[in-house]
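Forwarding these from the shared drive since the link keeps breaking.
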Amino acid sequence: MKARLVALALLTTAVGTAPAVAQVDSCPGDMAGPATRATVEYVSGGRAIRALHYVPGRPNGRALVLLHGAGGLRQDAPVFDPHLLQLAARGWHVLAPAYYDALDPPERRTSRDLRVWRRVAHDGAGWLRRRPGMEAGRVAVMGYSLGGFLAVEAAMEEPVWSAGIAVAAGLDVGEPLRDRRGTPLLLIHAERDPVISPVSTRQWAGGLERRGAAVRVHELVWSGHFFDRATWCGIFSETTAFLDAAMPDAAP
């Protein structure tokens, strides 16, 4: 664990160091497989965006952009890291961008900020599509809390996305767009969340359905906005099954 935290802390220092090979033994049912983690940069809106890239040893043609919550990538990366390594072990390219890099720290969040951060996700999808072993039209987006709202609204905004997932997200963090798309979406929320109200999540789901999306809502028997290790294991098991159904593995 100490080595993992040191590797993730590279986001606050130099970018472009050698990849770190890591174990994928976070949850029951995890599979062994070649997966590495590297720090990378790409450009969005003329700004350099730092990111963690989880690289599969045997690509399956699919990719995921993962958007952190309001606390930033440095806070969330240690939580997501073992699960993203597991996705890479299963063949997925995964990109976790520090999307706050796209703006100077705002005094308060505005609709423009949300638009800029969604653009970071869209440009991250473009970066992933150029990775070895990728197939056209097979990129999904997922996020937690603020990142979850950004992820699903991004999936409704542009046709580059095959699916969208939000964890602990709802209308408490921003205004929804008006785009209409038949995107497969999964919204996961706690039954009692003091930060993102379950009512706002359900209202968001209804609005997304009226905009044409195929929405599935999964409610966790949990009180709180933050989750323990076992709950995150269940969340990523649910999301992996959803992504496998939305984008079946085309590899022989």
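-- next protein --
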Amino acid sequence: MNFPQELKYTKDHEWVKIEGDIATVGITDFAQKELGDIVYVEVETVGETIEAGEVFGTVEAVKTVSDLFMPLTGEILEFNSELESAPEMVNESPYENGWMVKVKITGELPADLLEADAYKALIGE
């Protein structure tokens, strides 16, 4: 499995790419493999400020629906609208084309964001 070193990870299997005060958020390669074929991604929180740990959307796979948890506090600026017609991009490219939201960071970064090696240890890689 792939876990880019430049990203931060959560225990809930989201990844975060931080560029200045903007964060891009998605789910990890591990999460998409566990979920299976993703058929729908729903994010109705664009324009809202979401606290770290709160649900910002859901991802639906063939057999399950999973909540998406915000890894840091911020205002959701943008949803990856390409996922509406092509949710399989989360399976095919979880760190590139399959990103889910862009967030303006408004709070401190949580201390529990994990480096790639710590995330690998968490999932037993």
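Helices lie at 29-35, 82-85, 89-92, 116-123. The chain is about 20% helix and 35% strand.

- D.
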